[in-house]
Specification:
Keywords: Coiled coil. By secondary structure, this protein is mainly alpha-helical. Helix content is 62%, strand content 8%. The protein folds into 2 domains: 66 residues; 196 residues, no CATH class. It contains 10 helices and 6 strands; from the N terminus they run ααααααααααββββββ. A 3-stranded antiparallel β-sheet has the order 1-4-5, with helices on one face. A 3-stranded mixed β-sheet has the order 2-6-3.
């Protein structure tokens, strides 16, 4: 009996000794892991701080770019385009048949029949001017779309890639990649459209011609004398068609400049008939300071950093012009 108890005691001592050794190993491992956790935590804090500094530096850089000469030049080009549209529209009023113009403009926009009808029959010259400007800008503003390069043969595939990049961005800074891709594509397109031997030059010319045809034919419907004037005028430079062609070229050039920038530059979508006037980036042609937008004549053009930020990086490059009710 005593021998059995001694044997059991020895086994318990042996087991206890092994447990003590195992405990020492565990304590040693825990100590090492604690030190490793401290190191990783410190590294993580430093990395988070570095990322935040880089992020702030990136935002600061974009804010600086927003105030740079390139963006100012784009703003001037947009404002010049608006002025040239106004000048052409004003010249068309000199020989305008208000009955013909009213009939034409009443069917130009299916969603705007009621507000246009409410302006009068026939339309006052002031409203004909407004609608003429709107028609031309509606045609040209499509050329400002960020991810649309006129004449670019693989536009659809490029668009799909851009959407994939933005949809799969796990961090706001990942959207920089989409911006860089857009810039490079825009630069390539801008270079190739000037090379008469390139395929893009040919498709670019087709886009320009199609835009010109659409705008010119629309103006002829509202102002039939335009076609008669161009037919009789021997100097092509004096044709209304040449002035329309110049407007399309200006808009294409602005679009290329927009897409080649690091920041996002875009025309603000305006919901006619429901949206309220935003005096921070819009003016009413009749001088109203509030009201519901009946017609968007020129949409506001904004520039902003393509990342999430606590810093307001938006800038109005061109104030929108609206007609409110």
């Amino acid at each position: 009996m005593v021998a059995t108890l001694k044997e059991l005691l020895e086994k318990q001592k042996f087991l206890l000794k092994n447990l003590q050794v195992e405990k020492q190993h565990c304590q040693s491992d825990n100590k090492a892991l604690s030190k490793r956790i401290q190191v990783v935590t410190t590294e993580s804090r430093h990395r988070t701080k570095d990322i935040e500094q880089l992020r702030k530096r990136g935002v600061d850089t974009l804010v600086m770019l927003l105030k740079g000469e390139k963006v100012k030049n784009i703003s001037k080009k947009i404002q010049q385009l608006q002025q040239d549209i106004h000048t052409l529209a004003s010249s068309l009023l000199e020989q305008c048949d208000t009955d013909v113009a009213t009939k034409a403009f009443s069917i130009f926009w299916l969603n705007l029949k009621e507000p246009i009808a409410a302006m009068g029959d026939p339309l006052p010259l002031k409203r004909i001017l407004t609608l003429t400007e709107k028609f031309m800008m509606d045609v040209l503003v499509d050329l400002f779309i960020l991810n649309e390069n006129p004449g670019f043969n693989i536009q659809e595939k490029y668009h799909q890639l851009s959407v994939w990049i933005y949809d799969n961005a796990t961090d706001p800074e990942d959207t920089y990649l989409g911006g860089l891709l857009r810039q490079e594509i825009a630069r390539i397109c801008d270079r190739c459209r000037k090379d008469k031997t390139s395929d893009l030059y040919q498709t670019h010319c087709e886009v320009l011609q199609n835009k010109w045809k659409y705008m010119y034919s629309g103006l002829v419907k509202a102002f039939p004398f335009v076609y008669q004037n161009d037919k009789a005028e021997p100097d092509i430079k004096k044709h209304y068609g040449a002035r329309v062609h110049s407007l399309v070229e200006q808009a294409i050039d602005i679009g290329m400049s927009i897409r080649s920038q690091a920041m996002d530059i875009y025309a603000v979508a305006v919901e006619e008939g429901t949206q309220a006037l935003d005096t921070g980036m819009m003016l009413d042609v009749d001088g109203h300071t509030s009201g519901t937008i009946a017609l968007c004549i020129f949409p506001p053009i904004l520039a902003s950093a393509p990342i999430s930020s606590d810093v307001d990086t938006s800038l109005v490059l061109a104030v929108g012009r609206m007609l409110c009710i």
